[in-house]
Every structure is written in structure tokens, then in C-alpha cells.
Design a protein that fits this description.
By secondary structure, the chain is mainly alpha-helical. It contains six helices and two strands. The protein has a two-stranded antiparallel ribbon with strand order 1-2. Helix 2 (12-20) packs across helix 3.
């Protein structure tokens, strides 16, 4: 989705070429993932001469929120706290991020 959000419209080939610069990936893998993203309602597809052209179907923040909720449901049985604890223990959250989260928690408790 990050590649798609940087462009107004894109093809499977465009996404494949962009991803291939960073890592080895099969064209069919990109095609399958884009099909899944379309089925989930994150992408819209239209025909342009010889190829399908994709564009985001929803705003980035809405898609990210849905993907995070789906991930938390599948991996942490719906408990977002488990994800936060994992990130904090894994040192993926900076000190400033932990302080900001603590402030948000305190604001909710008020």
C-alpha cells in the first residue's frame, strides 16, 4: 500500500518494479496481494488498454486503522495492549513515544 499511496494510479508492474528495488519478490506475489487488497476494499481497479490500473479506495489513515485492527485481532486476540507491551519490550518504541502513550493513558483516565 505504501507504494500505491505515493502514486495516484499504478499497475501491478509498477508496484513490482518499486518493490524489487528493495528486495527480491515474485511478480505473481505482488499480483496476488493487490488482488487481496482489492477484495478487502482497499484498492479499486479499472481497465486501461492492456493492464489493470489500481488506485486507493479509501484514505490512508482509514486503511491503516483497519489493517492494524485486523492484525491485533488475528495475532493478539483483539487485545491492543498485548501489541503495545510487545513493542515496548522489543524497544521499538522510543522514550518519547512511551512518554506520549503514558500521557494519552492519563488523559483517558481523567
Amino acid at each position: 500500500m505504501k507504494v500505491i499511496w505515493t502514486r495516484e494510479t499504478t499497475t501491478v508492474r509498477d508496484v513490482y518494479e518499486a518493490l524489487r528495488l528493495r528486495r527480491s519478490i515474485a511478480y505473481t506475489t505482488v499480483m496476488t496481494m493487490m488482488k487481496i487488497l482489492e477484495e478487502k476494499g482497499y484498492l479499486k481497479k479499472s481497465r486501461d488498454e492492456r493492464a489493470f490500473v489500481y488506485r486507493p479506495a479509501k484514505p490512508r489513515q482509514q486503511v491503516v486503522g483497519a489493517m492494524v485492527r485486523d492484525f491485533v485481532d488475528r495475532v493478539f486476540d483483539g487485545a491492543a495492549g498485548g501489541l503495545l507491551l510487545h513493542l515496548a519490550k522489543d524497544r521499538r518504541l522510543s522514550r518519547d513515544e512511551r512518554v506520549a502513550i503514558q500521557r494519552m493513558i492519563e488523559e483517558i483516565d481523567e
